[in-house]
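Sharing a chain and its predicted structure for anyone who wants a worked example. Both blocks are below, sequence first, tokens second.
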Amino acid sequence: MSGLRERMGRLRGSGGGNADRGTTDAGGQAMPDPSALGDGKSDVPGAGTGPGTDEARKVRQAAEQSLGPEWERLGVKLVRSEAGEFLLRRIVYPPSFRHGTHRLAELSETAGHLAAFHPGETVEAEQILFLDLETTGLGVGTGNVPFMVGIAYWRQDGFTVEQALIRHPAEEYAMLFYLRELFESFRYLATYNGRTFDWPVVQNRLILNGYRNRMWEPLHLDFLHPARSIWRNTLPSCKLSRVEEERLGIVREDDVPGSLAPQLYFQFLADGNPLTVEGVFRHNETDMLSLACLAVRFGYLLAGDGGSGLPLPEEGEELVRTGLWLERMGRAENAEAMFAAAERSGRIDSGALLLLAARDKKAGNWQRAVLLWQKAIHCESRLGTTFYEAYTELAMYYEHKAKNIELALHYTKEALELALSHPLAGKRNPKRRAELDALRKRLDRLHRKNGKLAPGADGKGAGAALQGGA
């Protein structure tokens, strides 16, 4: 215990224990230039600048001290206030800065359309706070500590990224004091899965540090949900790094995976070397810039600028899923444009047709839904096998709507045969087994409705006979 107290004392007194080190690391290599972390200007503005309440400005007016050349090269300063100390890195990107396919200035041009996330509200770029955490673990429990909090916001002079880092748990109180006052300058919180992870983690830490009163209640702009709605089947993953590479033209070089951030932080706690967390700063900074570009992308889609402000998707299913998302967001006219583009593309497959048919089924447009299901059974999926879901939908339609038992029997048999020939049919997959059981029960019921003796009249039923021992 005494060793821990001594270490905490050294950390408080020396700003991490690195101020007296030289400009090279232990291996004699030159320290990196701060521009290696990003193309913006490393800057910690003086008193009275940036957003915030009066209390937040007081924090900004507090003494900001240099921590020595190693931290200085990273653009990191020590922030000291009545609440304590923590480290802060601030970078200001000019509006003309391009991150992938978008310029940051486009945020001010498209932010207003993000009001579709909260009908009846208005959105301005200056009202949005972007947030991304690097934490010691997973989950939102009390044991998960955000050791680095990245925030970003737009002002006319550029896009500012701030990254707060704690060198030990005792600095968390001061970091949260600073952030808590800053939060109140914004109305919207933009994140990637922040509604269920980042923001609950911050709330827990505020409560645990005694900040129970005057809790900020932002309106969320969580971009994970539209990303999944649009790209769930057309991208290998909806992780931010995959979305930005495949759809935003952003390529990360020498990036530290987010999964390694906790390990690097614990190593930093042990060695106190700023170079240990250099990659974590870079990773978090790129996340913040990518969040801004996602806001631009969804703003363009909601504005109806697909095909002009940004290129249309190439895959029919992505066009359809984009249209369905726009429809849910109250942009019916923009959605119809996406559906029309999907039909014109010539690249519409069974998955896209089934999505459109489900939309018509929900609306009661049965004639068009049947036509789309019939089209779907003639398409091939990515695995080269026909989607049996279309046969199942046609079977239900002819049984319950058209009252044509013969056709219902025909489509149910086709569906069951295709389901049994599916590559996953033999797997012990609960969902697949449930689908097969439902088709067998439907076939038995239809045979009884048709007044004919089903194959397997010995009690096994038509479905079991068709299964053939599968």
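Comments welcome. The chain has two domains: 2-303, 366-467.
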